[in-house]
Amino acid sequence: MGLGFIGQEIARAALQSEELELIGAVDKSPSLAGKKLTDVLGIPAGTFKISSTLSQAVGRRQGVVLLHATGSKLPQVTDQVLEALSLGMHVVSTCEELSFPWFNYADLAEKIERAAQRAGTTVISTGINPGFVMDRLVATLGQVCGQVRHVKVTRVVDARTRREGLQRKVGAGLTEDEFFNLVDQEAVGHVGLVESTALCALGLGLDCDDFEEELTPVFAEEDISGGAFLVKKGRVAGMHQVAVGLAEGQEKVRLELTIAVGADDPGDVIEIDADPPVRLSIPGGLSGDRATANLVVNAAPRVTAAQPGLLTVLELPAAR
What we know:
Layout: H1 5-16, H2 37-41, H3 54-58, E1 65-68, H4 74-86, E2 90-93, H5 106-119, E3 122-125, H6 136-141, E4 150-158, H7 164-169, H8 176-184, H9 193-204, E5 210-219, E6 236-247, E7 250-260, E8 267-273, E9 278-283, H10 289-303, E10 309-310
Parallel strand pairs: 1-2, 2-3, 3-10, 4-7
Antiparallel strand pairs: 4-8, 5-6, 6-7, 8-9
Helix pairs in contact: 1-10, 4-5
């Protein structure tokens, strides 16, 4: 459900999976509904057409998993998730705020939990982040540690390697004033970093009682080409976003995310201050779009065997 850039990546990954059978697709956009999925993806994807409604796509089939990629904000997608549950479907979503919805939307989380319990099905959100590199992977590494004192995760992404939509989302090409105007409208920045912070703390057994977040622009020191458009010197090249988890005023979790056109030294680094300490570095960093698609597809068979309800990625089995 949802055939934007990420949704199409998920569909391609599902077609390549030996564990899944892709049986339908849903998108309400007039430009897509009614078209054959094969024509939209440009690869063989069966003979079915894209439906405009979920019930039309699913029919009377049972045990279906919805691969859901329509939005980042939980209030915008809650009705879609509830509709899927009413049809007896499991849901694996890319909605960032659904990754740990108790943080900002406890009432909606409870509503989804009750609906999933009634249906006997499972709901989970995953992706590269939130969902893996800055939370689940950190929790997995923490299993070799004793008591954790502090964790810092740094992720640097050169936005030139990502889709144009992401380059726009991090503010590339804007002036400083334009950037902060869009920040005030919540139209720029990465959704889900605080949710990752909460998941990271939970996975490491850190009892954080407060969370803070800061978003600042990264400026181009020279003209930067190679992306979807030229970013001129002095303009915004991207963003630097920080979220921290505190316990009685003391920092316990620090997540730093830089996504910018031309960002230096892209990669992922996890540093856990514990006994023994752990440091993991992934030069170049994990792929964002393709990794998210694979995470969604690989989670689908797992949720059919999971306990009913609204879960987090920390409750998924480590193995595929």
